[in-house]
Design goal:
455 residues, 7-stranded antiparallel β-sheet, 6-stranded mixed β-sheet, binds FE2/S2 (inorganic) cluster, binds fe (ii) ion
Amino acid sequence: MIDPSREQKLSGVPFGLTRSDRIPVQRYYDREFYELERDKLWSRVWQMACRLEEIPNPGDYSVYNIFDQSVIVTRVDAKTVKAYHNSCRHRGVQLVQDRGSCPDGFTCPFHGWRYGLDGRNTAIPRRKTFAEHNLEPGDVDLVPVRSEVWGGCAWINFDHNAPPLRQCFEPAATILDAWIVESLRTEKWYAAHLPVNWKLAIEAFVEMYHVVQTHPQLDIPGMRYSLRPGAPFDPRAFIEAEIEYLRVLSDGMDGMVHANDVRVATGLRDYELPADPTLAIATWNRALNDAVMSWHRERGTDMPDLNDLDAQGFNETFYQCFPHYFVLPMYSSASSYRFRPLGPEETLMEIWSLTRFPEGEEPERPSVPEVWECDDPRWPPIPTQDFSNLPRQQKGLHARGFEYMRLAGQIEGHISNFHRLIDGFLAGLAHERLCRALPAVNVNPLDRSMVEIEF
Ligand code: FES
Ligand SMILES: [Fe+2]
């Protein structure tokens, strides 16, 4: 058992963990705790502000809102993306909303102050009526927000002292680079309004323990996860079960496994496998990897070497970039999630289906999704199942006598690791110390044990 007392002293935050495998319930609804997260966590982390295909051309912009802050993310030229606080320097009007394009720069809708894409003030109508001290060069320019481009996305950080982005996302950053995630493009994009705390929303997706009960259709007899040591192994039934699993994941998540890859797998239906299950799984993995790679490379897409990823131990299907961004790579494609708090018990979750296209054949700028409630009948089967538990869980947390969640430390350990890392931020630890702890959470969260969070 991990000794929590040391960490508790370290953090001194309200509603700290008294044991690593128990999460105090107030962390999911207490308003002061939520405000502490806003001030000490969200103000210091890298946040995914938009996908780059949302702003393909100079002058395209996308507005990222978080708590009471609004940030303009704009493309200046092919190589440069910049971010600014969305507030006119005259009397504070938000310059733009949502998304759009203004290649000639931003014009305030109130009195017409103008700004270039580089943020510089370019025009003040009736300039001479202002005193010189209100026209200081620099002071009337848009206030920049720190930004970086990585992994096919633009990122912002409100903290000028935070380390560079990649340093905050290791080891996930190196692994996702090996997956060439920057070449993925949006094929579908969904948004969900969830009546739950942002951490509760995330935690519904970061363990496998719920799969048998919540997604019984994924518990397919004969596939690798259901093989028992010593039980008879039927290679034909194994292949059928693997194909069925990919198909159910593909339909159920609308593209978590891309339909192209399911078709490639189905084409290998008659593949001869050895009778030994361990050997059979390895042979099947390689055959499917090879088939997916050659299908996509023939089309001219930027496809990583899946066998190399296997060899490096990078071929897992889920990675977190703390705190709110996830990539779930599978074969040629990936799902991606982003979570944003809207209130102590309210969250916006976005889901992308990403895939690879031959150069020049990438789809148009994706349209911003309508936000669906979590019980909307248009959700595919897998999110429908996950979302059906969430409002009930948030309500259940308010029950008198429910003091804390009880985690299985061997398989739900990521949830504990995630909370104890959050406490490091809430305690106001220096970035240098937080950076030592981040790699414990920027990993594949599934079936993970509790680990020591070393600040
Ligand atoms: S508030 Fe923007 S020009 Fe007046
Ligand atoms: Fe699920």
